[in-house]
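From the shared-data thread, chain only:
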Amino acid sequence: MLEGGWLRWRRPIGQADGVELVLLPHIGGTAAWYLGWIGGCIPGAAVVAVDSPGWARELGEDLGSTLPDVAKRIAAGLGRGLAPVRRVVFGHSMGAGVALELAKVVRVDLLIASALDLKGVYQGRAGATASELVWGAEAVPDELRDDPDWTELALPAIEHDIALMATYRPERLPAPHRLMVYSGRDDHEVSAEGIEAWLRLSGVSGHREFRGGHFYLETERDAVLAALERDVREATSGSRPHEP
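Structure, as tokens:
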């Protein structure tokens, strides 16, 4: 069953509880971007995909002016669903920051942070022109650069999302959380120091590196989905996380 809106659910028919996989997108990203490639990767899991705050605003929903505000709004939306036995949150780029804040307000059994440098690569981008945002950040997907009509439609959402990230200052998780960091080997938006900053947030953490750049999720889809399935199974069975 699939429900629409800025927060979209895909539940196996007849499922009352189990694993819930929450998917949080990149700057200017939509829930549909995830549902197209990841929806069936965890058999039997309920999948919840979320539009970026900028796209939600374009749909008439203001999720808040800070990432913690956005996380609280998403948490309230999750509260409308069935209570999962285990919850896994996967966030890519901006979505990783939202995932971190979400883990502070709802129970999360596994947090997977993908392609976000916690050392502040977005700081200073607030106030940039729309063209600078699209052409100057690898974190903006190629399809936005290559399609003028799509670019014009997406620019307000991108501007809103980058403004949120420019003011974001992450803090350590309040309690031990199981954390995995995913990154692309050739991602110029993410530094080694930024990855280390993630790993210091939790005493139970690991790192997986994939071939590719900021959007390695697309170019290395099979490898990412296989790793994701392994990490979810480990987290939901109570075993230790993958070690680098």
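The first strand starts at residue 2 and ends at 3.
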